[in-house]
Amino acid sequence: MGFLKDNVIPGNHGKVFGTNAKKDEDLAYIKSSILKIKGVEDVVIDRSIFPIEFTVYTSALVKVDDVEKVVQKSGFHAIPQELFSL
User: Fold this and answer.
1) In this structure, what DSSP letter does residue 50 have?
2) Other beta carbons less than 10 A from residue 28's beta carbon
């Protein structure tokens, strides 16, 4: 896979993930778990679309696998979405 596909790049674009979590408490748990990853600055959840998506913003390079593993521990999935169009 590619560098951009395997990592969350620091900056204002973030990386978008889809999730099968639906309840507010589950989404809050996922957000707090992701925020514990070193380099993650913010997680923004978008409940207005289906499936629900969240965007991870970082200050350092973070592996997509690290985000996926943290979310999977909560019993849900984090599916990285396609790269933004240039």
Assistant:
1) S
2) 12
Q: Which amino acid is at 17?
A: F
79 Cβ partners below 8 Å, 6+ apart? 17, 18, 19
| Rounded distance between C-alpha atoms, residue 27 and residue 10, angstroms | 23
- Any idea what DSSP says for residue 40? E
> What is the tens place of the pLDDT at every residue in 32-58?
999 999 999 999 999 999 999 999 999
Annotate 32-69 with b (16+ C-beta within 10 A) or e (fewer).
Answer: ebbeebeebeebebeeeeeebbbbbbbeeebebebbee
If we measure between CA atoms, which residue out of 36, 34, 27, 20 comes closest to residue 77?
A: 20
pTM score, two decimals?
Answer: 0.91
